[in-house]
Amino acid sequence: MIKELVTDEELLSTPCEPATAEDADVAQDLLDTLESIEDAACLAANQIGVAKAVIVYKNEKDRAHVMFNPGMKRALRPYRTEEGCLTREDTVKVTRYDQATFTYQELVDGVLIPRKKECRGWTAQILQHMIDHCNGKLV
């Protein structure tokens, strides 16, 4: 179901609770909402009012992916950039990493399975942005 985007800074700055397999409906709402927003690349559950660590993002081929409980383990080549956000009006200068290893869980047949993914460039940047959302860090 397509959800309204939340701009309440108190909710957005609250760290998300770990997600479970029972949060599959949250993941679907995120996918539906992301697809409804033109030119959107990523979305975190707290941006639709749910304080759970679930994110969705589109890769370079415009294919949507879901991550439960994402984290960043290793990061290389820091750089400064300016980012905008779907739920914030202003852009902000942040430090990101061009290459990073991400850990997350994927929902497979009703069970969360641990995964690891190496990303570079744009995908690494938006995943870092989404992890900040899960940690309650406003960008």
What does this structure look like?
- The protein has 139 residues and is an alpha+beta fold.
- Helices cover 22% and strands 44% of the residues.
- The chain has helices spanning 9-12, 24-36, 121-134, and strands at 42-44, 54-58, 64-85, 88-108, 111-120.
- Strands 1-2-3-4-5 form a five-stranded antiparallel sheet.
- The longest helix is centred in the C-terminal third of the chain and has 14 residues, at 121-134.
- The chain is globular, with a radius of gyration of 14 Å.
Short synopsis of the structure:
With 139 residues, this protein is α+β, with helices and mostly antiparallel strands. The protein has helices at 9-12, 24-36, 121-134; strands at 42-44, 54-58, 64-85, 88-108, 111-120.
Number of strands: 5
**Structural classification:** alpha+beta
Could you state the order of secondary-structure elements as H and E?
HHEEEEEH
- Strand order, main sheet: write it out: 1-2-3-4-5
How much helix, percentage-wise, in residues?
Answer: 10-25%
Q: Over all CA atoms, what is the radius of gyration?
A: 14 Å
- Which sheet architecture does the biggest sheet show? 5 strands, antiparallel
The best one-word shape is globular
**Per DSSP, what share of the residues sits in E-state strands of 2 or more residues?**
35-45%
Mean pLDDT: 94
The DSSP helix count reads: 3
Q: Give the low-pLDDT segments.
A: none
* Terminal residue distance: 26 Å
